Amino acid sequence: MFVAVMLVLVTVGTVLFHLFSPWWFTPIASNWTLMDTTIDITFWVTGAVFVAVLLFTAYCAVKYKYDANRRSEYEPENKKLEIWLVTLTSLGVVVMLAPGLIAWNDFVTVPKNAAQVEVLAKQWSWAYRFPGADGVFGKTGVKLINDDNPFGVDPKDPKGQDDILVDDSEMHLPLGKPVNLNFRSTDVLHNFFVPQFRAKMDIIPGTVTNYWFTPTRTGTFDALCFELCGTGHYDMRGTVVIEKEDAFKAWLAEQPTFAKSMAKVGKAAEKGFAQLDSGLAEPDNKNSKRVN
Amino acid sequence: MAYVAPAEAEVEEVELYHAKSFLTKYVFSQDAKVIAIQYSSVAIAIGLVGLVLSSLMRLQLGFPESFSFIEPSDYYQFITMHGMIMVVYLLTALFLGGFGNYLIPLMVGARDMVFPYVNMMSFWIYLLAVMILIASFFVEGGPTGAGWTLYPPQAILEGTPGSGGGIILMLVSLVFFIIGFTMGGLNYVVTVLQGRARGMTLMRMPLTIWGIFTATVLALLAFPALFVGGLMLLLDKVLQTSFFMPTILSLGEQLEYGGGSPILFQHLFWFFGHPEVYIVALPAFGIVSDLISVHARRHIFGYRMMVWALVGIGGISFIVWAHHMYVSGMNPWFGFFFATTTLIIAIPTALKVYNWVLTLWKGNIRFTIPMLFALGFIVTFVNGGITGLFLGNVAIDVPLSDTMFVVAHFHMVMGVSPLLVIFGAIYHWFPLMSGRMLNDTLGKVHFWVTFLGAYLIFLPMHYLGFLGVPRRYFEMGETNFIPASAQDLNAFITIVTVIVGAAQVLFFYNLFTSMKSGEVAEKNPWKAASLEWQTAEQPPGHGNFGAELPVVYRWAYAYGVPGAKDDFVPQNMHPDEVGEPGAHEASEE
């Protein structure tokens, strides 16, 4: 009896904890409500199974307690029952999987009108790049990165001259506009996650990853690195400010373009270009010439 | 009475290796039972190191201001070594090297493993791997702090603690572990396939053996991926090859690497890593089936389905690995495939849960300590299994991956659940191994504190994950979305962790005192039907079965057979002795 009571207490306690937990999802601030809905559906389906299995176990613990004068019932198989259980379980799986796959399909299909923004990760800070007036990013290379050119933008690429560089952990984005974040890392794996936006993707050196979302409310949000990236991982924080389009444009206008930031560096950069040429010959992601 | 006599033995018995000295009997032993104890002792000893590491990391998480001696680099080393130790050096070694060695020959009716010498080598190489692992704590820079997944590039770059000698020793240790395991693993597989007693058909084997056998096959196929991945990473580290290293900076410095793929390592790692989950889970599934059946005095419900579910889960587990990589940056279209396979694997798994519960149904349940642990397992496994359906469903994984939800999930499902089974198994088979019973009262206290405590640790932890609390954070610091109460919850979890950790002292006290002065166990104290309890002596001696090997007439679950004289019929009981006419036929299933 004690065991059965404990089983019931654990079951009821779990359900009550779930219902009254003060710790729950942050209020969503993006378009990914289908992710939240899928989680709700999954809770209903799996919660029902959890409660049913444990209460049935508790029932058995009371009803079929040991009695030396009794024997257990000998019925090694019950095909009908097993087929029923498999069918019901499969149905539950379909109910959970379908909305999940639909949400994933939306997640990996970037809308054509999404604005492009680059997030640059390095141990242990964030920086951001906007494509500028021409709407196209300039080419980049890891070998081009140095103190004067922290983004590694190719100085010879005309498309890169108007790129807007934000060498700061804070980024602004306009409200209600779909945005595609392109991720680049100069060193190790990272991950850019704002809990309220729900979207998440690892950032891999040598390649560009991405995700898209539409901010649905204004505010200042914390962005955290979500892939272990070394000793400073826990301290790799950024900020995303979602604001009305006017405010966003005003903020963007204050940020320097690549051409401007290189001009500041002035003559020193001229010298640098010569050595950069060699670096250009080896883009990030091609097979190494040497077996090495 | 009519029955089909099992066929004559196909091969004659091979003479066993007989130890001549203390050294060859107890140290360099070729007896699987001794090797099992050696494997288990080393695994549990290193597991205690893992337990201490987890307490240290919890102290930091629960009270981030109070333990100034824990630096961020220490914290990352604690979590890395805790994870690697628990998954590989404790759970894998204990289930396969420990329980596998002890139970396979006894339960299939063999005198020993088929290759006893290789079996011995397996243990010593495992011990060497553990020594190398321990050595990594003492090299300059300490052990690796790259996370147990050892993802490059960071695992071998300077920004990560232990990126010098630490990571090298870690990888070398893994390579040795795999070599040692392969020797043992081949042995287990061949013994199950070739060493069974007369009449022991595959479909009469206890589910414990099916679980260990399937897990071993998985391990033999999965570990090579880790082996090559580890070797390639070692080459990247030591010889500056670029298997996993693209053109890259490290803390602002240009490095010589170029052209490699970090994500390739993740594929190799998880091609091993996902089956690894089942390498730990399947033996637990098998053992818990037997615990439930024996102590509920009822045959396992749907034995055939249980076997096929084990084999099916094992098979599918090789095509679900990338569900660990939904947000890794791999081609996003993989998500559809891997989400589907992952949720499909839930079906045979759910079926196993149903059949455990249906075994209790209409049973005659004795609430012994092993049964309590089995019931605890059902709770934690159902809980941890359903949270797997969240993480396996690709779109839900996006907000939850790398949060504390993941930590809570895998601890519940492949930490707490298998450990509860291990405890249950030790309470169950201790009388066989030692000839004495463990203390019941201590056992009950140990169970309730461990089970309820572990549940209290990991259930609320999921909710930190919903909130967005990341895993692998030295401290939460300031954010505008995590309320102060989350820190209180962290402190609570830490306190419970320390209590549960301390409660294990009870278990070890019980183990050591009972070994010497526990109540002497009567022969086959649980009245179990499987072969390991039908040996000539208890504990079984050299050669396991005395003069004559057993002949098997039925499955291992003949409990409550109508017409039989007892409520169980041992697998090797001669059909004429079972009871009323027809009882034997019924017991054959």
- What letter string, H or E per element, gives the SSE order of chain A? HHHEEEEEEEEEEHHH
Mean pLDDT of chain B: 95
Q: Secondary-structure element order of chain B, as H and E?
A: HHHHHHEEHHHHHHHHH
Low-confidence stretches of chain B: none
Distance between the termini of chain A: 69 Å
Number of helices of chain A: 6
Blueprint of the fold:
The complex is a heterodimer of chains A (292) and B (589).
Chain A: H1 2-20, H2 33-63, H3 79-108, E1 115-122, E2 125-130, E3 164-166, E4 170-174, E5 179-185, E6 190-193, E7 202-203, E8 209-213, E9 219-225, E10 237-243, H4 245-253, H5 258-265, H6 267-280
Parallel strand pairs in A: 1-5, 4-10
Antiparallel strand pairs in A: 1-2, 2-3, 5-8, 6-7, 6-9, 9-10
Chain B: H1 22-27, H2 32-62, H3 72-108, H4 116-135, H5 165-194, H6 207-238, E1 249-250, E2 253-254, H7 262-295, H8 303-316, H9 334-360, H10 369-392, H11 394-400, H12 404-434, H13 440-467, H14 484-517, H15 583-587
Antiparallel strand pairs in B: 1-2
Helix pairs in contact in B: 2-3, 2-4, 2-14, 3-5, 3-6, 3-7, 3-12, 4-5, 5-6, 6-7, 6-8, 7-9, 7-10, 7-12, 8-9, 9-10, 10-12, 10-13, 12-13, 13-14
